[in-house]
Amino acid sequence: MKKDANGKDVAVCPAPECKPGGPEALRADTPSVSVLVPVRNESRYIDRTLRQLLAQDYDPDRFEIIVVDGESTDNTRQQVQEYVRRHDNVHLLSNPRRLSSSARNIGIGQARGEIVLIVDGHCEAEDPQFIRKLADAFTVSGADCVGRPQPLDTSRASVFQRAVAAARHSLLGHHPSSYVYSSEPRFVPATSVAVAYRRDVFSEIGYFDEDFDACEDVELNYRLDRAGLRCYFAPETAVHYVPRRRLRDVFYQMMRYGQGRARLLRKHPSTFSLKTLGPSLLLLTCGAGLGLSWLSFWPAAACFAILAVYGTVVLAASLAIAVRRRDVKILPRLPAVFAAIHAGAGVGILWGLLVDPWRERRARRGGAAKDG
User: Fold this and answer.
1) pLDDT tens across 99-156, in order?
2) Helix 334-350 / helix 159-169 crossing angle, nearest 10 deg
3) Residue ranges of domains in the chain
4) Under 8 Å CB-to-CB from 95, ≥6 apart: which residues?
5) The domain at 2-245 falls in which architecture?
């Protein structure tokens, strides 16, 4: 026997077949689970997501699905209401602020489960044992939260979406410190991967910061790590995400992530790293080189040299990825996808460090003037 995070005795089987979700895992007590699904305009995917969650091999009296809608302008809300009418364990809440962070907090406030799991409205959980494996991961590990891989789904993807999935899975396409594409079960920092939490974690470290509309999960998980709580990475609990369908969607997605990373850096300066700032430093260097080109040839030459090195690295990586995946059709699209990823992240970080603080100061001055 061992103690879990709450000091309770937990049975642990040391044999390999007794990993979380294995047939010999001891399940003397089935924990209750609240599945939070923040959505806004997800009519394309929400039906599939809810069907897969309701098909889980888990006692329906022991888990609930809480959909929190951010005032969708499509048919999302109507689709969810149909499930609410037919299933007692499906609930629909409203999120007037429309932010993902506020949606999560609204769901947590209403959740009754011992475990709170967050699932996006545009992901696939095809494994009917998904929730059971997640609950078992908590029981066997005794962790305070559980992280999972989040591979992009390519089963019904277009060539462009396959290119996005391949790029995001590569070392050039996601944050170097992230574990979201790992496959080894172990204890890891929660920052990049935690998506399921023991309910009492929120009483200890607080809820999601609603000043964030991207990277709110990273910020909460950073606080979780700083509090000394433990995160177990359970690769058997993977869900699949749908890749963006257009290049501009990739750019804007990464721009939001960049803004979130910048806000994280402003709130928690200890998260600073050159790896995070890499895309923005590339943009700044090249922008400065071109801006100073009227003074001398050399700044512009340095800029083009940097771009030539960057282009060579991206082309080499694209070729290696296409060969490794045996998918030559994605090769012409990969360089543009990488450029959108890096440019979007770079612009978002610069925006979050320079423009957002200026807007916030201006808003505060405006509020003070009104109060005066």
Assistant:
1) 999 999 999 999 999 999 999 988 888 899 999 999 999 999 999 999 988 777 656 7
2) 60
3) 2-245, 248-371
4) 38, 40, 68, 69, 70, 71, 102, 103, 106
5) Alpha-Beta Complex (3.90)
